[in-house]
Every structure is written in structure tokens, then in C-alpha cells.
Automatic annotation (TrEMBL):
Coarse class of the protein's main subcellular location: cytoplasm
Residue ranges of the TM segments: 7-27, 33-52, 64-88, 100-118, 125-143, 149-171, 209-230, 242-258, 265-288, 294-316, 323-343, 349-365, 415-432, 438-456, 468-486, 498-521, 526-547, 553-576
Record domain YrdC-like: where: 608-803
Biological process per Gene Ontology, one example term: regulation of translational fidelity
Protein family: Belongs to the SUA5 family.
Protein source organism: Eudromia elegans (Elegant crested-tinamou)
Protein name as it appears in the record: Threonylcarbamoyl-AMP synthase
Catalytic activity reported: L-threonine + hydrogencarbonate + ATP = L-threonylcarbamoyladenylate + diphosphate + H2O
Pfam family, any one: Sua5_yciO_yrdC
Single GO term (MF): L-threonylcarbamoyladenylate synthase
Gene Ontology cellular component list: cytoplasm
EC number: 2.7.7.87
Signal peptide: none
Entry keyword set: Cytoplasm, Membrane, Transferase, Transmembrane, Transmembrane helix
Length: 818
């Protein structure tokens, strides 16, 4: 929870700072009190817990807390790895520890100072004090590495401040809950902050993770920028922890940005994570080869184009974001123009520019987390210009990222998936030397872009209910990882094996199945999967040593161009309405597959407009699948006899499955109250709303519902089952439509329907629309109580469902007693 997250952060910051206090007070000894390996391991553990505490708290409006948590987490993660490397003797040369630590310390000195300043401006005093003390500790440590006269005591003192503040805050929260709010230390009362956050909370569209992503960009840029400015004397393996930790965290920020429904920034953070892993790989390269590696120019040119396209679309969000991405366009061009890539002055100069730009963006994002933005960013300027055009119409509304089959916690990641296919295909266009496969940097582009991020896109697609797309992305990601490591990292060698060819043939067979399935999806997906088959053929021909000259380049170019079209199409469709770059219709349409998608609406239950639209469909004589307090059901409006008959005929052996009647309030039966016995009426009032269906005697009260001739389909000639569901969505729908008739959303004899995806799959064209609310809250149907003899003081049970028999009898007994 919110208070638990604050307590955890205070305790963790106290623990980590106490460890570093002890370390810096004893670092001048011949043998420090805490060995470097042990200290690094403890910092790694604390960093993972800090990240968890920050992400848990991120569901609430706590942007500054989140930024501090994740920034401190990545700081201690990288810091801990460097301590472990030092403890294991990797950093033995003079100045190695300084060269390894200073780039990260420079970044976190500035980043934490920005968080501290914003914290004081926003009156987050405790967080600001912790951030400022950590910033001063990092600054003193930088000075200590360049001038021993500073000593380590100043660093230890700053960490002691953090430890004391964190300990005080943790103690205050502990006493607050232990004494049930009787003892409240000054500055630790969470109730005041809760009220303040409720008033000042921002809209759900705010991506609170973007600030941390920008700080990570500062971190990677600092490693190479410090070398250009002479702050460090060399680039070497000791700086890899900063780069790869920022890459790992950047992928996490990418995922969390999708969860924040920020597709464009999520894609951007995915792109920058590729550069971070590639930078770390380049610093590791001297372990295997003495000379510096070369970089593939076509890949970097295409990467610059992707950044430029993304920058263009990000201007729709704000002009500042679009301009910021232009630094990465220039960066990729600079790396492409330099054969030695990251090791030359041009790219390193761009790193310095990116560091400064990222720091400014961090300040802007952090200042603008509150409702009233302090710094203008040009937000909405381009949108206002496009609103006057008829050619391009922007997608808007709360359902912007809603999938076809209802609600999802993630935005669509297909844009990133297609972009990664573009990058991986152009990365393999460079024909390397089989005897020296590592001479050209290909592995990080293929493995990270084509593999890891493709798996990420597939996982998000699966979470959104896109089974085929997710299967394809995951399959292609696995293929890129396996073949990328095998062929481009030197594991393959010059020998060719029949076993490798058999494995690739198995992949091709599976991809052929995907190609067949895409016939029912869209034309673009068909060509996307078909052209990947060309890539697989290239791998197969290489495995049997029969690859024609230029075939692999041609195959990669074709797949890359198709992927680029898919990237543009997905990007356009996520921002604009209409079909500027259409994906195309299914090549083959069958009933219930592809062509049936347009016949049945799937609307998210979390939107009031969706419920109203379902109500309109029911009023016009349609039948709909809706969520309830138990399982999904098929419903029709009582005052539409044709719809009631349609719902009845949707079941096999329908006469054996009489439909029930649902209302939202007993007020709907008030006109016929005199037709019910007082005991029955009181029992209905006591039992509802709940998953309890009452079977009551049929009578003239049925005529008040307007079913006319269709009344024969509801209940039996002697009785009718009726209930008020304990589900706000369902009762609101009934308020709009009036009483409804209900039957199970599955063919007779099959299991209950427990997810909105199953409704159309089971009923097909018999249902006109589905109100989607994910998995059912329960997998058990309602309890059905026989009230036909209630006036004699007896009730029976036709079915015992979610409500146990004892609970129903207790309600009835209390009614009789009182």
C-alpha cells in the first residue's frame, strides 16, 4: 500500500546509507570493516527492494517518491556491481576505481540535486532532504577521488544524514500504525499527505516513469561524455555496470510506460535501451579482441530514421519531447559516420549534448508532475494545428488504448515489435568475416532489438488478447536470439552441422503455420510473416554452406522494408483515426474468424459510454453478453419480445433451460407489490442484491414487465427465477434498459463462461455485443432458492452456488424471528 511503500523506502534508504557510512568511515584502513564484495552484494539486494517499493507506490500519485526510489535503486545496483568487481580484483590498475565510479557519480549528483530542488519546491521536505544528502555524498566522493585531501569523512557524514532521516521517518510510520494513530512524530503523519494527494492528483495519462528514463539517458551519456571531457582517462570494463544497469532498468521503464498507456515514450525508451546494451558490449569487446570493433552503418542510418519518425509523432504530445529525440537522431548519424562508433569524438560530443538535454528534460518533467505545469513544453500545439485539417483526425478519448476485446492494463506494443524487426534485419546486412565474427558489432543489435524487445512486444500483445500476434513476436524473438548468438558471436565457427539445419527447418515449419494463420488476420501480417520465411531460408542456406552471394542481404532488405511499413502503419493507427497506412483486411474470411469480428461489438465495461451503447442495443432488440457478480450471461430486454425469443433460441434444448428475470431494484416491481405476499417481499429485500436467485410463483405481476407473448420463454408455467445482481455495471445497465431476461452465455451442457473472450467464441452470431470486464470475479453460478412455498415457512434449494445454504437459511430465519 501507500504507507507501506513509504515505510519500506525509509527503512531501505536507512539500511543502505548506514552500510555506506560504515564503509567510508573505514575505507582508509588496510582492511575495510565491510569487504567490497559483501558491500556490493548487499547494495544489489537493497536496490531490487527499492525498485519494488517504488513500483508498488507508483499506482498512486507519488511521482517524486517514485523518481527517488528508482534513481537510488539503479545507483546502488551499478555501485554494488562495481564494488563486487573491485573485490574480485578486476579493477587493479591505478585509477581504475576512479574511472569506473566517476561517470555514475556525476550523473547521480546532478539527478539527485534536481529531485531535491523539486522536492523543496513541492514541499516534500523529507524526500528532498534525503535526495540532497545523497547528492552531496556523490559530489564529495568525486572530489575525494581527485584530491585525497577531501578525505572520506564528508561522504560518510552525508550518508549518515540520509540514514538518520530515513530511520526517523521509518520510526514515525511504525509508531503511527503500531499505536493506531495515537503517536505521530512531526512530519510523518500520512493522513495529511493523503488528503493533499487526492486534491492534487494528476490525470491517469501522466507517465510518472519518464523522469527515471531520462535520468538513465544521462547515465549512459555520462560514461562516454566524461571520456571526451577528460574527466576519465579511459573507457574499459569497469564502466559496463553503469551502461548495462541503465539498459536493464530502461527496459523496465519501457514496460511500465506501456502500463501507463504511453506508447510513444515506451517505444523511445525501448530504443535507448538498445544503445545502452550496445555501449556496454563495446566496452567488453577488448576482452575477446585487442582492437576496437567497427559499427554497421546501414543499421545506424535506419535507427536514425526510426528516431526521426518517432520524434515527429512525439511532437503531438509536446514540442519539447520531439526536439529532445532529435539529439538521438544526430547521435545515430554521428556513430554511423565514425567507423569506431562510441570510441570516437563525434559520438562522444553528442553524448555530452544528450547529457545536458536529458538533465533539462528531467527538470521539466519533474517540475510538471503537479496539476499546474510550471514549465511550458508546447503541449497540444501541434494537435491544435491538426485539428483544423480534415485529412488527419487524432484519436482521442479514454478508450484510446482499449483493445478490441475489452480492457487491458497495457498499451499496444506492436510499434516497438515492428521497429525491432527493422533494426534486426538491417543489422545482419553487413557481411562479416566468419573467422572474426566479433570484428563488427552485430550481437547487441540482433539479440537486444530482434530478441529481447521482440519478446517484450509479444508479451504485451498476449496481455492484450492478441494470441496470433504475440505468438509470432515471441517466436521471432527466440529465433533472433538463438541465431544471433550462434552466428554473430563466434559460437558457430566455420564448421557447418546438419543438426543446425534440422533446427532451422523446424523453425520454418512453425513459421509456415503462422503464415497460414495470418491469412485470417490481415494482408500486411501475411506479408510480414511470409518475408520472415525468407530470413529463415537465409539461415538455412548458411547452415548447409550453400548461401548464394547477396541473398541474405536481399532477404534482410525485403523483410526490413515490410517491417518498416508495419511500423509506420501501427504508429499511424495508434495516433490517427482512419486508414492512412492500412494493415489490410483478412485474405480469407470464415464465419467467426476474421470476418465475424465486425459483427459483434466488444466494449470495455469500465466506460460509461460502453454501458450506454449496450443499453441502446438491448432497447433495439439485440442480445448481449455482460459481466455479473458471478459468470458472464446472455441478456435481452423484457420489453422486446423478439429479443427474448432470440435469446431463448440461442440454446439447444432451450425448453429444459428456462430463462430468469433480473431487476436492478425492487422499485421496478413496486406497481405489482400488492401481488406478492408480505413475507416473500421482505425476503427479497433481505436477500438482495446478491448472487441469490429466488424462484417465486408465477402470477399477474409478470404482465407488468411488458414481455407479452415472449413471457412463455421466461421461467416455467408455475414459477419464475428472479434476482438483483450485486454488480454495479449490471445494475446500471438494468437502470438504463429496465428489467432483463437472462440465460447462461454458453451452449446447453457446456461449462459456465468466465471471460468475455469466451462469449462470442461460444455463441457466435447469436450475440450482438459483449461488455468486456476480463475474468469473472467468481467461477461459480448463483444459488437458486425455491420460494414457491415460502408462506408455509419453508424454502428449498434447486442449486447451491456461491452463497452457501446455511447463509440463505440464516437470512430467512432472522426474517421469521423478527
Amino acid at each position: 500500500g501507500r504507507f507501506t511503500g513509504s515505510f519500506a523506502f525509509s527503512l531501505l534508504s536507512h539500511s543502505g546509507s548506514l552500510l555506506l557510512t560504515v564503509h567510508f568511515y573505514t575505507v582508509s584502513r588496510a582492511a575495510p570493516l565491510i569487504p567490497s564484495t559483501a558491500l556490493g552484494t548487499l547494495l544489489l539486494i537493497l536496490s531490487s527492494l527499492l525498485a519494488y517499493a517504488g513500483i508498488r507506490r507508483s499506482l498512486r500519485n507519488a511521482s517524486l517518491f517514485l523518481s527517488l526510489c528508482l534513481t537510488l535503486s539503479v545507483f546502488w545496483c551499478s555501485y554494488g556491481v562495481i564494488f563486487i568487481l573491485g573485490g574480485q580484483g578486476v579493477l587493479n590498475d591505478t585509477g581504475d576505481l576512479r574511472n569506473a565510479l566517476v561517470p555514475g557519480l556525476v550523473t547521480f549528483t546532478l539527478a539527485l540535486l534536481i529531485i531535491a530542488v523539486v522536492g523543496f519546491l513541492h514541499r516534500e521536505v523529507v524526500l528532498a532532504m534525503i535526495a540532497s544528502a545523497l547528492s552531496f555524498a556523490s559530489a564529495h566522493e568525486i572530489a575525494m577521488h581527485y584530491d585525497t585531501a577531501f578525505g572520506s569523512s564528508a561522504v560518510a557524514c552525508n550518508y549518515m544524514i540520509v540514514s538518520l532521516v530515513g530511520g526517523y521517518f521509518a520510526l514515525g510510520r511504525f509508531l503511527y500504525f503500531l499505536t493506531k494513530e495515537k503517536i505521530i512524530l512531526p512530519g510523518t503523519d500520512p493522513s495529511k499527505k493523503k488528503t493533499h494527494e487526492q486534491i492534487k492528483s494528476t490525470s491517469g495519462s501522466m507517465n510518472h516513469f519518464a523522469t527515471t528514463g531520462l535520468i538513465l539517458n544521462m547515465l549512459s551519456a555520462s560514461v562516454f561524455g566524461c571520456r571526451l571531457l577528460g574527466v576519465t582517462s579511459k573507457l574499459f570494463v569497469g564502466q559496463v555496470p553503469w551502461l548495462w544497469a541503465s539498459g536493464v532498468y530502461q527496459i523496465g521503464i519501457c514496460i511500465l510506460s506501456y502500463r501507463s498507456m504511453d506508447t510513444l515514450m515506451a517505444t523511445f525508451f525501448g530504443f535507448t535501451s538498445i544503445l545502452k546494451f550496445a555501449g556496454g558490449y563495446s566496452l567488453l569487446y577488448p576482452i575477446w579482441q585487442p582492437e576496437e570493433p567497427s559499427f554497421p552503418m546501414p543499421f545506424l542510418v535506419v535507427f536514425a530514421i526510426l528516431f526521426a519518425v518517432l520524434a515527429l509523432f512525439l511532437t503531438l504530445k509536446s514540442l519539447v519531447d520531439g526536439l529532445y529525440l532529435l539529439f538521438y537522431v544526430a547521435y545515430c548519424i554521428a556513430v554511423a559516420c565514425c567507423p569506431k562508433g562510441f570510441f570516437e569524438g563525434g559520438p562522444q560530443g553528442m553524448d555530452v549534448a544528450i547529457f545536458v538535454a536529458s538533465a533539462m528534460m528531467t527538470l521539466i518533467y519533474q517540475c510538471n508532475t503537479k496539476e499546474n505545469a510550471m514549465i511550458p513544453t508546447g503541449k497540444g500545439v501541434v494537435k491544435a494545428l491538426l485539428s483544423n485539417t480534415s485529412f488527419l483526425k487524432l484519436r482521442e478519448g479514454a478508450g484510446l488504448h482499449a483493445p478490441y476485446l475489452g480492457y487491458s492494463k497495457y498499451a499496444d506494443a506492436e510499434v516497438l515489435g515492428y521497429a525491432c524487426s527493422v533494426l534486426a534485419s538491417f543489422a545482419i546486412m553487413i557481411t562479416g568475416d566468419p573467422k572474426a565474427p566479433l570484428a563488427t558489432v552485430v550481437v547487441p543489435w540482433v539479440v537486444v532489438a530482434g530478441g529481447i524487445l521482440k519478446l517484450l512486444g509479444g508479451s504485451v500483445a498476449f496481455a492484450r488478447g492478441k494470441t496470433l500476434e504475440s505468438s509470432a513476436f515471441i517466436f521471432y524473438g527466440i529465433m533472433w536470439i538463438i541465431w544471433g548468438l550462434t552466428r554473430y558471436s563466434g559460437l558457430y565457427g566455420t564448421a557447418r552441422s546438419f543438426h543446425t539445419a534440422v533446427g532451422i527447418i523446424a523453425f520454418m515449419l512453425f513459421n509456415s503455420f503462422i503464415v497460414f494463420c495470418t491469412l485470417f488476420l490481415s494482408i500486411t501480417w501475411f506479408f510480414y510473416s511470409l518475408t520472415f520465411l525468407l530470413i529463415a531460408i537465409s539461415f538455412l542456406l548458411d547452415a548447409i554452406n550453400a548461401l548464394p552471394t547477396g541473398y541474405d542481404i536481399a532477404a534482410a532488405l525485403i523483410f526490413g522494408l515490410v517491417s518498416f511499413y508495419c511500423f509506420l502503419s501501427a504508429l499511424f493507427s495508434s495516433i490517427f483515426e482512419g486508414s492512412c497506412l492500412p494493415m489490410g483486411k483478412p485474405i480469407v474470411q470464415l464465419s467467426g474468424v476474421g470476418g465475424g469480428m465486425s459483427k459483434c461489438l466488444h466494449l470495455p465495461a469500465r466506460k460509461a459510454s460502453s454501458v450506454k451503447r449496450i443499453a441502446d442495443i438491448l432497447k433495439n432488440g439485440g442480445t448481449c453478453g455482460i459481466p455479473t457478480d458471478t459468470v458472464y450471461v446472455l441478456v435481452a430486454a423484457c420489453n422486446r419480445p423478439d429479443a427474448v425469443e432470440k435469446a431463448h433460441n440461442s440454446k439447444r434444448q432451450a425448453q429444459e433451460r428456462p430463462m430468469s428475470l433480473w431487476i436492478s431494484s425492487l422499485k421496478q416491481l413496486e406497481p405489482a407489490k400488492h401481488l406478492f405476499t408480505p413475507l416473500l417481499w421482505d425476503f427479497m429485500e433481505a436477500a438482495w442484491p446478491s448472487p441469490i436467485s429466488l424462484v417465486i410463483p408465477r402470477g399477474e405481476w409478470v404482465d407488468f414487465l411488458g414481455m407479452k407473448d415472449s413471457a412463455k420463454y421466461v421461467g416455467t408455467p408455475q414459477s419464475v427465477a428472479i434476482r438483483i445482481p450485486d454488480c454495479s455495471v449490471t445494475t446500471h445497465l438494468i437502470d438504463l434498459v429496465g428489467p432483463i431476461v437472462v440465460t447462461s452465455a454458453n451452449p446447453t451442457g457446456e461449462a459456465d463462461t468466465t471471460h468475455h473472450n469466451q462469449v462470442y467464441a461460444k455463441l457466435g452470431d447469436k450475440v450482438d455485443a459483449v461488455l468486456c470486464d476480463g475474468p469473472s470475479p467468481e467461477n461459480i453460478a448463483s444459488t437458486v432458492v425455491d420460494c414457491t412455498k415460502i408462506d408455509s415457512g419453508n424454502i428449498g434449494f434447486f442449486r447451491v452456488g456461491i452463497i452457501p445454504k446455511s447463509q440463505v437459511k440464516l437470512i430467512f430465519s432472522l426474517l421469521l424471528f423478527f
